[in-house]
Write a structure and sequence with these properties.
The complex is a heterodimer of chains A (375) and B (306). By secondary structure, chain A is mainly alpha-helical. Chain A contains 15 helices and no strands. In chain A, α5 runs parallel beside α7 and α5 crosses α12. Classes of the chains: A mainly alpha (375), B mainly alpha (306). At the A-B interface, α1, α6, α7, α12 and α15 of A face α5, α10, α12 and α13 of B.
Chain lengths: 375, 306
């Protein structure tokens, strides 16, 4: 029943898992390895700051004032921090679609597709409920978005489980299929004829939109994102299902011998994982765009993959990384306005940070100073 | 072509598909050959979309600066190779996930391309020459870029390289079983680095084709996902360079089918049609994979991910 490839893969995943926050800690305060997990990411961020600083200097801008602007635009005031938080919400939800299946031993990159399908289905259903009360409409839209996103990712999980199709490649294909379905829908089936330059669906009625929280500009997506990350953490580290997921990720054969229903748990996990980006799609429609159009395909899904890897697949880490990345995304325009650097400068920065942090993964365990001494 | 095709009615559709297969298939061909070489060595490069954009930008910029489109192609290959060096170096570090590196490289590569390419959006760079192939008096001629023929030759050369040369065997050995290759005294690191860098250079040339021939301009939307489609295409072609050629022509033709049908009035599923390369590849994977075995022809080092 178990194929060799799956076993081999599970084996190779043991290594990163044992360094994640879920592994059993040996007793005593492991200050050396804790120092390691602080020093390495900090060092990586400093190196990428220096590299991008050099890049800015080459492009003729003062690196220090560039960083000051980025900080100001991302975290400098309550207003800009709200903007950052709004952008971090979909990142949190999308990151979970990679982080949760990773503990099963699957590398899923179908976040973008699940977000797009979730947003599209939520819109289609929302358009059918013009007379419903706002709360009903919102709940129905959210549930539909989650189911749609969940099912979308479950397809890749099922193909892996029952046909042995590689989940990374199939979920990548599913992203493009989802985007094509979105384009088809907004150009024909649900197209609002008044949207000329940017084909869009008919708009969701204003009163049914998700309102901002209190007198801030933050919408409910942030709350959903925070709750989702907490739930995912509880699920993975505190529940029986989470234990079963981690067992399958550690060793499929052992899990089967222990009587864990591998197939069913794989499907359930993929469904849960896909439900989060599906919800992100619903929030993007219901809180920001008000209709389905190509703005749904804004790379939050792909950025979510990186967030998950940078957070070392820990749901709580995803919160922190999402806020940092949200800040970067929010400061995109400022470099153009204040320093005459092209918009893409922030993409270069993002890419540099990601590459350096991914490189820093290889440094764990390399320096003797950080190894625990056996007493 | 559109003016000429008005007189020949439905014949325009197969002609447009044929023209599209050559015109739209060439970038697929280069990127997929690059990805094929990379994957044969046992590594996967999802970042070729970024390489493609960087190649498109550097090719266009150099062609504009020097006036020679062929120098542009060379620059695109060098630019692609530079990004390939980064990818090769990073993905061969322990504990570094190559899927994540690929996605980071897409962001980094396209970021650099947009950043450096901003001044070149307006000016017109000299384009690659066109070879016209006549199809008789009543039909419009086919416009083909010389790079297409380079790509065809390359596909057959790569096939020969894998099948009949010592170095080709090294690449296959490293891709199938790195430990065995190491035991034979082959440097896995060198073979993989060479394969990834060469593969990225090929993808860079594919980018130059985009900006210097068709669509023939540089802007941020010059690529319509060819780099990502190529990853699918290599699987569709089962890691065989000559099959990559046929698959590129098929996908290029499929891309042209939508607009061609639209021109004769069939518009209903135009957008859905754009997903056909992905649906086809997914179908091939579903039909040929099973829990017992992976796709035939899969390099051994990739089995747990394909």
């Amino acid at each position: 029943m178990v194929d060799n490839a799956q076993l081999k893969k599970a084996g190779s995943l043991l290594e990163p898992l044992s360094s994640s926050s879920f592994s059993g800690k040996r007793s005593g305060f492991q200050w050396r390895s804790r120092m390691e997990s602080i020093v390495i990411p900090t060092g990586a961020i400093l190196v990428s700051l220096a590299a991008f600083g050099a890049f800015c200097a080459l492009a003729g801008a003062d690196p220090f004032s560039v960083y000051a602007s980025i900080y100001k635009a991302a975290f400098g005031s309550w207003y800009s921090f709200q903007n950052t938080l709004v952008r971090s919400a979909p990142l949190m939800l999308c990151a979970l679609a990679t982080a949760i299946p990773f503990h099963l031993g699957l590398v899923m990159i179908g976040n973008e597709g699940a977000l797009v399908i979730g947003g599209l289905c939520a819109t289609v259903v929302g358009l059918q409920l013009p007379t419903a009360s706002p709360l009903t409409a919102q709940i129905v839209m959210a549930v539909v978005g989650m189911i749609a996103g969940g099912l979308w990712l479950t397809i890749s999980g099922a193909l892996k489980q029952y046909r042995g199709v590689n989940e990374t490649i199939s979920s990548l294909m599913m992203n493009y299929i989802a985007i094509a379905i979105l384009n088809q829908a907004i150009n024909t089936w649900i197209r609002d004829p008044s949207s000329l330059n940017k084909p869009s669906s008919y708009p969701i009625p204003d009163e049914q939109m998700l309102q901002p929280i209190g007198d801030t500009t933050i919408h409910w997506g942030l709350v959903f994102g925070l709750i989702a990350c907490l739930l995912a953490w509880v699920l993975l580290s505190q529940t029986t299902l989470g234990f079963q997921i981690r067992t399958i990720g550690g060793n499929v054969r052992a899990a089967q011998i222990a009587g864990i229903p591998v197939g069913r748990i794989t499907l359930i996990t993929c469904f849960l994982a896909g439900a989060f980006p599906g919800l992100a799609g619903m929030v993007e429609v219901a809180a920001i765009h008000g209709r389905a159009n190509e703005s749904l395909n804004a790379w939050y899904g792909y950025s979510g993959i990186l967030v998950a890897f940078l957070a070392r697949q820990s749901p709580l880490g995803c919160i922190l990384i999402s806020i940092l990345l949200g800040g970067l995304l929010a400061s995109g325009g400022i470099l153009q306005r204040d320093h005459h650097l092209p918009d893409a400068a922030i993409m270069v920065f993002q890419g540099l940070v990601f590459l350096v942090i991914l490189y820093s993964e290889s440094l764990y365990g390399k320096w003797k100073v950080f190894q625990e001494r056996d007493a | 072509m559109s003016s000429a095709s008005a007189g020949i009615g439905w014949l325009a559709v197969p002609l447009a598909i044929l023209a599209g297969a050559f015109r739209g298939g060439t970038p697929f061909l280069f990127v997929s050959l690059g990805e094929c070489l990379t994957e044969k060595s046992g590594k996967i490069n999802l970042g070729l979309e970024g390489v493609l954009l960087f190649g498109a930008m550097s090719g266009y910029a150099i062609s504009y600066k020097t006036g020679s489109p062929w120098l542009g192609v060379l620059a695109a290959a060098c630019g692609g190779a530079c990004l390939g060096v980064v990818h090769a170096w990073l993905t061969q570090k322990p504990k570094v996930n190559d899927i994540a590196v690929g996605i980071a490289m897409i962001i980094f590569g396209s970021g650099i391309a947009f950043f450096l390419g901003k001044p070149f959006i307006q000016p017109l760079a000299p384009q690659l020459p066109t070879i016209k192939i006549g199809l008789g008096d009543r039909l419009p001629s086919l416009d083909i870029c010389p790079l297409f023929f380079v790509g065809v030759a390359l596909a057959f050369a790569l096939h020969w390289f894998f099948g009949a040369t010592r170095w080709g065997m090294f690449v296959r050995a490293v891709g199938d079983k790195a430990e065995a290759a190491r035991a034979l005294g082959i440097s896995v690191w060198r073979v993989r680095t060479a394969s990834i860098v060469t593969g990225s250079a090929l993808a860079g040339i594919g980018g130059a084709y985009l900006s210097l021939f068709y669509p023939g301009s540089w802007n941020e939307r010059v690529s319509s996902g060819q780099g990502m489609i190529a990853v699918a295409l290599v699987i569709f072609a089962r890691w065989n360079p000559v099959h990559c050629l046929w698959a590129s022509l098929l996908f290029g033709g499929a891309q042209a089918l939508g607009p061609a049908l639209q021109s004769v009035g069939v518009t209903s599923y135009y957008y859905l049609f754009n997903a056909s390369p992905f649906i086809l590849t997914l179908a091939v994977m579903i039909l040929t994979c099973s829990n017992k075995r992976s796709l035939s022809g899969t390099p051994g080092g990739l089995i747990d991910r394909t």
